[in-house]
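>> Question from a student workshop board

For tomorrow's exercise we were told to take the sequence and the ligand below, predict the bound structure, and bring the output to class. My setup keeps failing. Could a helper post the expected result so I can at least see what it should look like? The ligand is fe (iii) ion.
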Amino acid sequence: MNLNAFFKITYGLYIVTSKNDEIINGHISNTVFQVTAEPPQFAVCTNKDNLTTDLIKQSGVFAVSIIEQDVDINYIGHFGFKSGKDFNKFQDVNYKIGKTGAPIVLDKTAAYFECEVVQKYDVGSHIIFIGKVIESEIINESKIPLTYNHYRNVIKGVSPKNSPTYIDKSKLEHEKTENKSENKSGKMYKCTVCGYVYEPEVGDAEQHIKPGTAFEDLPDNWICPVCGATKDMFEELR
Ligand code: FE
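>> Workshop helper replied:
Here is what the output should look like for this input. Compare the format with yours to find the bug.
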């Protein structure tokens, strides 16, 4: 089996959100698809460990924001690589509460829809929820929806462990190597969780790391600016 074939499947990227009586949450998903036209129904597939999965089970509703292409990896990281169990992802994010009561992310969103769950299927690590569409709206007609291919090949993102499309890199036959692994300030290091690359020449302004700081000289408490992974989760680019 050649796992690289899996990367040839096309997907979009979405923020799937839900709520219960106390909290709201959401995460990045690429497994959102329409299953019937009449009535219009959509399926989403979410990991049992994700907070949003519990919220969908509790409330029976979810919303989906279709992410626009003009987005950076930090935005994906905010919703995709951090857990709503640790912080409120909606702080500093433009959103509204929809007809179903689910939160709808409006930032970087081309369009959205809201669903009421009509069926769910346990598929092992994940649950597939089928939802009947209650509401849908275009936020920005001019925006191109982000595809998984663009995310992987242009934004250089990867799938996190909880994603249905996560692939263990060590199992790939021909893992692509980056075309540059070093610049004049030292070797580049890649986060094995989210794919962010630390470039010594650039540093990390948010964490007050000056340009020209080698990875080895980063303080021990430095973390991946995208997903929050610690330094030991980085590997040298070769
Ligand atoms: Fe990371």
